[in-house]
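B., you asked whether I could sanity-check this one before it goes into the benchmark set. Here's the sequence:
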Amino acid sequence: MDDMKFRRAMGKFATGVTVIATENQEGVHGMTANAFMSVSLDPKLVVISIKENAKILEKIRESQKYSVNILAADQEELSMIFAGQLKEHSEVVFGYLDNQPVIPGALAQVVCEVSHEHIEGDHSLFIGKVTDINLEDEAEPLVFYSGYRTLTEKQPAPL
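And here's what the prediction gave me:
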């Protein structure tokens, strides 16, 4: 099967956009990802999927912690920075939650400790035990569906 056909098919699944962040002695490291999901409510677990050649992979293995930052619609530029699509940009300033770097203004900031790592195909799946969460005021999310998009409010159904 053609790789691009598979990639285009997966792009037909609308997802939110996140920045995964971790920190080690070299500093803060981040990457844009849409491969994120909730796994369990009790205990509170989430999973992220990181490609084997991603720079952040060894950094998460080393730190055993990461944050998932669910981006707002006005944070598309941050997504592009952490996806390596913008080479020239201003320095990204991180906040901290539970001693982990987070993106200020993200709709949600979820801090995790690695519970398990599973290697599948060309990716590593990190199951994370959620240690803290911060929610921002309601804002529109950044969405990926064959490219970046935003949601529009639906009109209420007539009574």
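One thing to flag: Residues 3-145 form a domain with the Pnp Oxidase; Chain A fold (CATH 2.30.110.10). Otherwise nothing jumped out at me.
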